[in-house]
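Hello Y.,

Per our agreement to keep a running log of every chain we model this quarter, I'm adding this entry. I've kept the format consistent with earlier entries: sequence first, then predicted structure.
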Amino acid sequence: MYYAGLRAAAQCLPFNPWRAGVGTSYPVVNASLVSSPTDSGEPCSPVPAIEIDVALLHASISDKFGNVQHSAYGLR
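Predicted structure for the entry above:
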């Protein structure tokens, strides 16, 4: 479900239809079932998008104050 929520946010969608939650208590707790977006008509759980507000920085040099510096050659 975590993957489905992140995927929905990455695709700028309000939710991602996911078959894995059918038959569990997830639809009872979170949302109702929807029909499959494909022609199969199978029930799917709408997993809402997870809007994240973090960034991961990879740098070769940093200090204890949070300043980072990127160097193409690494530490010299």
